[in-house]
Every structure is written in C-alpha cells, then in structure tokens.
Amino acid sequence: MFKTRITELFNIEYPIVSAGMGGVALAELAGAVSEAGGLGTIALAGLHPEAIQAEIAAARRITKKPLAVNLLVPFLRPGIVETLLNEPIQAITFFWGDPAEHIPPVKKAGMKVIWQCGSVAEAVTAKDAGADVIMVQGVEAGGHVRGTTTTLALVPAARDALGPNVPLLSSGGFADGRGLAAALALGADGAVFGTRFLASRESAAHAIYKQRVIDAEAEETIHTELFDIGWPHAPHRVIRTKLVEEWERAGRPQSGQRPGEGEAIGSYKGTGPEVPLVKYSVMTPTDYIEGDVEQLPFYAGMSVNLVNDVMPAAGIVQQIAREAREVISARLASIINNTEHGPQSE
Ligand SMILES: Cc1cc2nc3c(=O)[nH]c(=O)nc-3n(C[C@H](O)[C@H](O)[C@H](O)COP(=O)(O)O)c2cc1C
Q: Disulfide engineering: 135 pairs with which of 10, 23, 116, 323, CB 3.0-4.6 Å?
C-alpha cells in the first residue's frame, strides 16, 4: 500500500514511526506500533542495562516485526551500545549530539542507524558519518527540540542537501494522515509521531498528563529551557502548566532564582533505585512517578491541536495510514485530474 525508502529499508507496511519518548514510549507502545505495521521505538533514556534488556524482551513478546530503540547521546553510558548489539532490534535512533563513533559497530551488527537532527547542516554531518536514515525535527515538535526551523521549511531543504536517495524521516507537528501525506510531499520517506502516541492507551504518560495533551491547543505550548534540572541548556517544548505560569508571573527568572527552586515534588519509582524529584526537573510525568505530577514538564508538540482522544496505538497507526491514502489517492489526485482538463491542457 505504501512504498517508500523507509518501508523498503525496514520491510514494514507503513512509513509511520513512533518517536522515542523518554519514560513514555516503552515496550507496550513500541511493540503495538510495530505489530500494527509501523516502526515502534523504545526510548531507553534513563534505563540501566538490565531494564533495557527487559524492555526489549517485553516488546518482543508483543511483536516479531522490526523495532527501534532510542538513545540520547549526552546520557550515553559506556557499554550501552555494546549491550544493544546483541539484542533483537533493527535500528538505533540517536538524538542530541554526535554518535558517529557508534555508527560502524551498529551497522556491523546488521542494525540501521537513525540520527535525529535539528538542522540541514546536522543532517549533512549525519549522512557523511554514515547514518542509514536521517530524521529531521522541526521546532514545532514536542519534547527536547534540537533546532529552530519549522518542519515545513526543514524537510525539503534537508532533502535538497542530502540528495534523492538518502532515507529521510520527518518529525515535529505530525498527528494524522494529512501530516503523513504532507511529509511525503515535502520529500520525506515517512513521518515520526510523538505527541500523537503520547495520548495512546499504551503510552506510560501519567493520566493527568494525557488528559492535558487532549485538552491543550497549540498556542498553549511553549519553547523554553525551564525544565533544566538533570539536563541544562536543552530547549524543549512543553504545555503551559501552573508551574510555567508561576515562573512567567515571576518575570521568567533564571535558573537558580525561580519560584520554589529546589523544592521536593515526589519521586520516580520505576526500575532501579528510587529517584527524588525537585521542581524544574527534566523527568517526564509517567505512571512511575509518585507525587505532584503537575510540577513536571508536560512535553508536547504543537500538534496537540489535532490530538483529541486516547486511542490504542494500533488504531492510531491504521487511522493515519487510511487518512494518508485518502488524501493522496483521492483529494490530491483529483486536484491534478481536474486541472488536466482545464486551461493548462488546452
Ligand atoms: C514526551 C516526549 C518525550 C521525548 N523524549 C525523547 C527522547 O527520549 N529521545 C528522543 O530522541 N526524542 C524525544 N522526544 C522528541 C521526539 O523524538 C520527536 O522529535 C517529537 O515527538 C516529534 O514531534 P511531535 O511530538 O510533534 O510528534 C520526545 C518527545 C516527547 C513529546
């Protein structure tokens, strides 16, 4: 039904990729997306090696189809990539920094390297370093945002710079089949969906956070460096919560001088040791948090406008695929058919 460089490279049905989302996109979500014909990604941020292996094994109980995992370069501990080389996964997505040293061993192990980039320059660096797939992220994206350019401007420019044959994924701002069709029109071979899958049944996002994603409008998201405890100087897009408003009312003071700075708000009780959390922590509000989740970053992209319900991940994949097919084969095709009989052909 869909044939792009991405569907061919991974031998999957749809050019639909679920984003690596720290704490949120775990085995259940990634497994469901892959099983439904997309490429599911397990986010490994913050997981120790045993938890990584357990998460991949759990996803493998859900699906035998291709799976990706996601690593944040600044938090990459020695031995993690080596651990992954023996795991039953097909790709590793790297974000936020230069993973070039890991590319040869990952490729040698028969896996694909996906490098999420924030600019055309970074995309070219990734291609030159040998990445198999370049993923470009627009500034409308949710979570940590690497670049400053909109997806609309970035994707075609990246395609021009990379040449016609490099597998290219586009992330940031996509939530439905119209978005997938647009990504393909811009020159990408598939689209990455983060915020849309955040509000899926299988995502580990806390229920209060999911509800806020459903209720929020794009205008309520803010691009900021506010949630910097644990990851300073890294811009991100979040929904404007009470904490954000409190900081804005205080005149947007700098880190170290913000209202309630250092106040304890709860703890993370996932795998491994319990981690105490303070205000302005980088930690995503998930099912594994105990405490006041509304003090944590509600990461979400501008596509919150288009996310109005919590759906099973497989339903999201099918709906996006169906809509994209309708847009391409009916609506867009009919525009061309009409004009062929119009003034241009006379
Ligand atoms: C809650 C959340 C957590 C994220 N965590 C990560 C992460 O751990 N690693 C990563 O590469 N990208 C992360 N991202 C960014 C996504 O990879 C992707 O660029 C983004 O979700 C695309 O934009 P969209 O949300 O508009 O779909 C995160 C995004 C969200 C919404």
A: 116
Q: Per-domain residue ranges for the chain?
A: 5-203+307-334, 207-303
The verdict on the CB of residue 227 being under 6 Å from ligand 1 is no
Please tell me the class of the 5-203+307-334 domain.
alpha beta
- Candidate from 144, 170, 223, 238 with most ligand 1 atoms within 8 A of CB, to mutate: 144
Residue nearest to atom 22 of ligand 1 (CA): 172
Cβ-Cβ contacts under 8 Å for 139 (sequence gap 6 or more): 145, 147, 148, 149, 150, 151, 172, 223, 237
- Ligand 1 pocket, residue 133 CB under 6 Å: no
d(CA 294, CA 279): 10
How many angstroms separate the alpha carbon of residue 246 from the centre of ligand 1?
25
Cα distances from 255 to residues 120, 187, 250, 261, 294, in angstroms, run: 31, 40, 12, 8, 19
Q: How far apart are CA 299 and CA 284, in angstroms?
A: 7
Instruction: Report the separation in Å between the CA atom of 118 and the middle of ligand 1, taken as the mean of its atom positions.
Output: 12
Q: Judge contact between 135 and 93, C-beta under 8 A.
A: yes
The span from the CA of 5 to the CA of 198, in Å, is 26
What is the phi/psi pair of residue 264, to 5°? Answer: -75, 140
Q: Are strands 168-171 and 221-224 parallel, antiparallel or unpaired?
A: unpaired
The whole-model pTM stands at 0.96
Q: How far apart are CA 196 and CA 287, in angstroms?
A: 18
pLDDT in tens, 210-252: 999 999 999 999 999 999 999 999 999 999 999 999 999 999 9
What span, in angstroms and rounded, lies between the C-alpha atoms of 11 and 20?
A: 20
pLDDT in tens, 31-74: 999 999 999 999 999 899 999 999 999 999 999 999 999 999 99
